[in-house]
Amino acid sequence: MKTVNIMIVGVGGQGSLLASKLLGRLLVDEGYDVKVSEVHGMSQRGGSVVTYVRFGEKVYSPLVTAGEADYIISFEKLEAARWAECLKADGRMIVNTQEIDPMPVIIGSAEYPSGILEELKAKGVNVDAIDALSIALKAGSAKSVNIVLMARLAKYFDIPYEKWIAAIENTVAPKFAEMNKKAFELGFNA
User: Fold this and answer.
1) Taking 90 as the threshold, does the pLDDT of residue 141 lie above it?
2) Handedness of CA 108, 77, 167, 51 (dihedral sign)
3) What DSSP string runs through 90-144?
4) Integer Cα distance of 120 and 123 in angstroms
5) Closest Cα to residue 127, out of 83, 168, 162, 171?
């Protein structure tokens, strides 16, 4: 089996660590050799964050380089543009349509770029855009955007729905399990 490379990109505080932990647990439970990277970026200051999840029969390194990602899950549109060069030509990018202003926009020295998804598509990127924030709010909390995005990723994997739910139950704090399972259900059916 070939190694599958996944990048989870976003802004600090969006839950990318939990998403990578959930995905790693699920894949280990499925019998794969899995490597999950450390977080890169200024995660505690709202900066760009990336984690890597690689799985297959035998995986030797957790890192994904330019042109190697089978999937990029982007928690925010600008991060999708920032990391697009890492996607394989036939890879897929799942993008939350949410916009989170970076510091230059917050202080007024720049404007948030428009047309990001259209530019990516024009460059041949296979974009699967989803309003994960609205779905997360329907589930009960904006903090479940990460689970909504994992549900969208689940559509591309041949792993039964129930196993994803079990991974959620084994990964998230019990008091948040029901809300996250609802977020997964809504995201999966979106």
Assistant:
1) yes
2) negative
3) EEEEEEE------HHHHTTSS-PPS-HHHHHHHTT-EEEEE-HHHHHHHHT-GGG
4) 5
5) 83
The partner residues of 73 in beta bridges, in order of sequence, read: 8, 94
pLDDT, tens digit, 9 for 90 and up, residues 32-73: 999 998 766 655 556 778 899 999 999 998 889 899 999 999
Determine if the pTM surpasses 0.90. Answer: yes
CATH class in words for 4-189: alpha beta
Which residue in 50, 47, 97, 57 sits closest to 71, CA to CA? Answer: 50
Q: What is the mean pLDDT of residues 1-10?
A: 92
CA distances from 30 to 45, 67, 109, 167 (A): 35, 26, 48, 11
Q: Work out the number of other CB atoms within 10 angstroms of the CB of residue 30.
A: 15
Structure tokens at 117: 């998804």
Q: How far apart are CA 158 and CA 175, in angstroms?
A: 29
31 exposed, middle or buried (CB, 10 Å; 0-12, 13-18, 19+)? exposed
Q: What is the DSSP letter of 85?
A: G
pLDDT tens-digit profile of 75-112? Answer: 999 999 999 999 999 999 999 999 888 888 888 999 99
